[in-house]
Amino acid sequence: MNILRKAIWLFTLCLASLDGSLVGDGVRRTGSLSFGWASESIVPNKPVAIGGQYHTRISGEAHDPITVTALAIETRDQQGVIDQIVWVSCDLVGIRGKTVGNIRKLVAKSIPDLDVMKIVISATHTHTAPAITDANETDLHPYDFAGSWAYRIPDDRQNIMRPSEYLGFLERQIAAAVVGAWNSRQPGQLSSALGHASIARNRRAVYFDGTTRLYGDTKNPNFSHAEGTSDDSVDALFFWRDGQIVGIVLTLYCPSQEVEGELYLSADFWHDARKLLRERYSAGLFVLPLTGASGDQSPHIQVGKSSEADMLKRRKLSYRQEIARRIVHAVEDVADVARESIRAEVWFDHRVEKFQLPVWKVSEQRFAEASAIFNAGKDKFDRLTSPDYINWRVSRTMMARYELQKTEPYYPAEIHAMRFDDLAIATNPFELYTDYGSRIKARSPAAQTSVVQLTADSPAYLPTERAVLGGGYSARIDDGVVGPEGGRVLVDETSRLLKDMWAPQR
């Protein structure tokens, strides 16, 4: 019996070693790090509809570059490849699952030795970038939430690039960045550190009557408090060659929407941050910004506006420049600490799973309301005002969801989890309320944990129970595919995945 048990144990270890994650003694494989960077412009050559508001905005010129930045990472040892990833950050309001799928198909033709499921695409949530849905799309899936948010192009504007044309251009540019980063891989080192910057503000104001309003008036005598907390963490991952920083991955728990209502294209405060970081470290520095769990946050000042405005005047800065200054200070504060832990041999583990999250069920009452709005507008939707047109499209989606949830009660969320030594990074596709990110961090076995939202798809907000009770935009069923029930599953499953990645390997 002992001989049989030993044989089974050895056979199991041999099988495990075939997946590139374990060696024969049952210990996870560390490997030599190589990485490459690339960046591409995603500025269109014509005006476009801008995403992020209820009303149609047509872009003028680009105020500052909007780009995609790609980082390719691979670890190897004498047995070959251990693991890999290509992470892409986009100056966009979101990224749709169908876009991610198209990009993976493009890349597969050029890089046969890359597992295209290891391509991770995230958005910074700038509200001054091209729209990602075309009003003429006919194959919209009810759980493709971004499909509800399409903008009508004015008939008298013949020089405008339609969203469908822009999406084709976007896919080619992202694929080019992925290929460029992958083909530029060279040996190097990495290190990580935790900084802090006061940027995010909870944007949901709670009143004494129990109601909640997004960007509610805090000077109202009935204002009680902000609904939730904020996370001022700045998770930094530094990449080094010859003792110099060549690139930085920064997770900030705040969307980049300081100038969200403008009529120009802009990367918002991340452009200013990139500029300052390049002035500080090197002109060729790559900066890959990620948005941490912050569905209920924004950089807009909710309390103390006059004192903040006075400080901006005295510093001679715009607020987006002030945000960039705080980001740079957070990086400078930890860069020397990070330098002390540079390593070329890295324990890197990247896992991809589909979490089956219960969808937020459309009630019979909401179905009836949606049906009434849809039927009232279906013969005149070309004459509806912009907000009414979006509401009409959302109502159409609510009707489709009501039928689909009977046979497809789950939303398949693509989740990526990474381990870089004792740093964990876990993604999700939502505009995830900060409370969920806090729960994942609290339960994580890692020394430092990053929770990155707006990755691989755009099913919109995932609010908490208390947010739903308070109501208001971002906490209604109209504003997201998955509700609090699914949020709890997301936290549980993410925690389970991270725990497994940190489990003893014998």
Provide a quick synopsis of the model:
By secondary structure, this protein is of the alpha+beta class.
Can you tag this structure with a few keywords?
six-stranded mixed beta sheet; disordered N terminus; four-stranded mixed beta sheet; alpha+beta; 506 residues
Question: Secondary structure elements and their pairing?
Answer:
Elements: H1 2-18, E1 31-41, E2 67-77, E3 80-90, H2 97-110, E4 119-123, H3 163-183, E5 186-187, E6 189-196, E7 201-202, E8 204-207, E9 212-214, E10 223-226, E11 233-241, E12 244-252, H4 269-280, E13 286-291, E14 297-298, H5 305-315, H6 319-339, E15 345-346, E16 348-358, H7 364-377, H8 386-404, E17 410-420, E18 423-427, E19 431-432, H9 434-443, E20 448-452, E21 461-462, H10 465-470, H11 484-501
Parallel strand pairs: 3-4, 12-13, 18-20, 19-21
Antiparallel strand pairs: 1-2, 1-5, 1-15, 2-3, 6-11, 7-14, 8-9, 8-10, 11-12, 16-17, 17-18
Describe the structure.
With 506 residues, the protein is α+β, with helices and mostly antiparallel strands. The protein folds into two domains: 427 residues, no CATH class; 41 residues, no CATH class. Helix content is 32%, strand content 25%. It is built from eleven helices and 21 strands. The strands form six sheets. Strands 1, 2, 3, 4, 5 and 15 form a six-stranded mixed β-sheet that branches. A four-stranded mixed β-sheet has the order 6-11-12-13, with helices on one face. Strands 16-17-18-20 form a four-stranded mixed β-sheet, covered by helices on one side. Helix 4 links the parallel strand 12 and strand 13. Helix 2 packs across helix 3, helix 4 crosses helix 6 and helix 7 crosses helix 8. The radius of gyration is 23 Å and the shape is globular. 48% of the residues are buried.
